Amino acid sequence: MYIADNTPDLILLDYEMPVTSGPQVLEMIRSESRGDSIPVIFLTGKGERESVLKVLALKPDGYLLKSMERPKLLAAIDEFFEKQKYQKLHDNNIS
Questions:
Q1: Distance, C-alpha 80 to centroid of its chain
Q2: How far apart are CA 3 and CA 26, in angstroms?
Q3: Which residues contact 32 (CB under 8 A, 6 or more apart)?
Q4: What is the distance, to the nearest Å, from the Cα of residue 93 to the centroid of all Cα atoms in its chain?
Q5: pLDDT grade, residue 1 (50/70/90)?
Q6: pLDDT by residue (tens digit) across 41-92?
């Protein structure tokens, strides 16, 4: 698995994929010792309540719909990184 040797800044994960579903992939990522610290945001076309609740129960770092306009999608990802940067600064100031 790629994340065994690498630590990505963010994984954008689709809900439906050909071999394994997004929720199953997220469970596999989270089961790895290094996987807990890797942020995962779902980018999917599935917006119905049941699918959203199933994914949110796995505690991803976000859930974005593919139907979002590109500028809004990019802004949401930028906002995620800004929050992450702020959190790191905050954590370093507390230490």
A1: 10
A2: 12
A3: 1, 3, 4
A4: 26
A5: low
A6: 998 887 788 878 887 888 899 989 889 999 999 999 999 999 988 888 877 7
**DSSP letters spanning 23-74:** HHHHHHHHHSTGGGGS-EEEEES--SHHHHHHHHTT--SEEEETTS-HHHHH
Q: Are 30 and 58 in contact (CB under 8 A)?
A: yes
Region 13-35 average pLDDT: 86
Beta bridge partners of 40: 11
Amino acid at 22: G
- Confidence band for 95, pLDDT divided at 50, 70 and 90: low
CATH number for domain 2-94, candidates 2.10.260.10, 3.40.50.2300, 3.40.190.150, 3.30.750.24 = 3.40.50.2300
Domain ranges of the chain: 2-94
Tokens of 91: 């954590």
